[in-house]
Design the sequence.
């Protein structure tokens, strides 16, 4: 059995894809009413409407007691979920499927799992992907990062499905930070497009934003090749160019001066604040992330944020 904790769109899509392997997939939700609705309708109408749940997907409010667990919960809720269910998660294989940096601790998903659940075997599944594509069976490539190379190979085999191809690495820092920081850059890219500043401005923000990602991640021990892969550059490209990206759409709304759905999780907002604080402590220059944090906090307008970047001292690339 494989368990997916978190019945949002992405967790549900992963459960749908994993179910194609033929084994039982437990799909956990904290809300018993939500579980009952999924069991009755055989779909997750709240989060991924129109996608049928196969017979071997079992919505449940109980933590599965066997097999690896994929933690598909928002980053800012991950610690709370781990603490609440610590006894049931001791010694388990825990694979994070969230992207971000914890506001309180400045830790990523793997580091958070290791801190809260000593003895757990943590990993992260990340990369350029949208729930709708995965659920529809469209081809997707992801990175599985696990510090234990042998365990990582085992998980790679267990989690690869007919439409999800998984590449593995032991570089958890690179995978965590590439996936987290690209959301911040996606907000900047969306804001530029929403403000009518054009594709050239977006390309510049993506390129210089990637330089910021590399600076911080490599200072934390990440490997350059990880950042050039799916969980870094690949995820950045997708998130900064597609209307399916919540972070990009949030940036578009900022640029256009429009309201955004408050029920939609936008991980880049909290990550921008966390990474700006963290980079300041480390003495690392991250002007785009800092501008996004100020923009999200209402301290800058989009025009002021972009002007602050354009007016920086000239330098070599």
Sequence:
């Amino acid at each position: 059995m494989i368990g997916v904790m978190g019945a949002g769109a992405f967790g549900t899509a992963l459960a749908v894809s994993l179910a194609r392997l033929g084994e039982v997939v437990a799909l956990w939700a904290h809300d018993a009413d939500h579980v009952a609705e999924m069991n009755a309708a055989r779909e997750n109408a709240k989060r991924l409407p129109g996608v049928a749940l196969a017979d071997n997907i079992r919505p449940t409010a109980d933590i599965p007691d066997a097999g690896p667990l994929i933690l598909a919960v928002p980053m800012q809720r991950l610690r709370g979920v781990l603490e609440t269910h610590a006894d049931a998660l001791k010694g388990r294989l825990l694979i994070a499927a969230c992207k971000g940096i914890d506001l309180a601790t400045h830790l990523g998903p793997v580091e958070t799992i290791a801190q809260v659940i000593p003895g757990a075997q943590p990993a992260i599944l990340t990369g350029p992907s949208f729930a709708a594509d995965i659920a529809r069976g469209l081809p997707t490539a992801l990175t599985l990062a696990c510090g234990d190379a042998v365990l990582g190979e085992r998980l790679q085999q267990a989690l690869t499905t007919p439409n999800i191809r998984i590449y593995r690495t032991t570089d958890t820092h690179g995978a965590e930070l590439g996936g987290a920081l690209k959301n911040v850059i996606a907000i900047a890219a969306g804001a530029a497009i929403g403000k009518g500043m054009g594709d050239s401005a977006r390309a510049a923000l993506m390129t210089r934003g990637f330089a910021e990602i590399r600076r911080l991640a490599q200072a934390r021990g990440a490997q350059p090749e990880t950042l050039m892969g799916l969980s870094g550059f690949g995820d950045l490209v997708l998130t900064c160019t597609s209307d399916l990206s919540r972070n990009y759409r949030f940036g578009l709304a900022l640029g256009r001066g429009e309201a955004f759905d408050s029920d939609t999780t936008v991980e880049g907002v909290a990550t921008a604040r966390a990474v700006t604080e963290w980079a300041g402590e480390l003495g690392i220059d991250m002007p785009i992330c800092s501008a996004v944090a100020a923009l999200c906090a209402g301290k800058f307008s989009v025009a002021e944020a972009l002007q602050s970047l354009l007016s920086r001292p000239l330098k070599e690339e």
Observations:
- The two ends are 50 Å apart (CA to CA).
- The beta strands are 2-5, 25-28, 43-44, 48-52, 57-60, 69-71, 93-96, 121-126, 140-146, 164-169.
- The longest strand covers residues 140-146.
- Residues 62 and 286 are 42 Å apart (CA to CA).
